[in-house]
Design brief:
10 helices; globular; 189 residues; 67% helix
Length: 189
Amino acid sequence: MDLPDTRVFDWLGIDPDGVPYYLHPLNLNWSEAGPEHDLALFQSVGKRLESEPEYWSQIIRTQAWRHTLVGCVCVMMTRRSDRFADLLYRFNHGSFVVPQVAMTMGIVYPDLAALHFNTFLTEQNTVRDYKQITSAQGVLAKLGITRSIDLRTEDLESHDKHDADVGHRVIENQWDFWHQQSSCRSNKA
């Protein structure tokens, strides 16, 4: 898959401190104007993407995590009902921002996400991305779905343990914020 063009970054712009707005949601570090301002930019870009569904699909499905992150935040801000297949594609193929992809799936499409994550976690794959596993487990837990067997990270190699911890931490640290933001947006619609 070719790298999508960068116009989505131009649409978002750069904050007064010179930080591209697309970076703010990664760790919930907002511009001086605050999260409401920054997220309004993403909502505006999401509305713009509604007229370019193929481009929106490209930015979610690409391996380029910056594009994918923007696509995810725009899905959460607009509550689009037609992006699950794109998110599922990116989740299944992995990404630096796979926790954010999983979180978007769980917040905007909870029933589909639960079904997919349960299936994903019960399959016996030989190659596993531990960030994917802990992200899926974390989303299921946030959705109130308990599983009898989950990944135990104590016995993993250092790199694998780090990836597993990242997936877990992102879901734990960001779920409430994104869930609240997404719910507020859907109530205003």
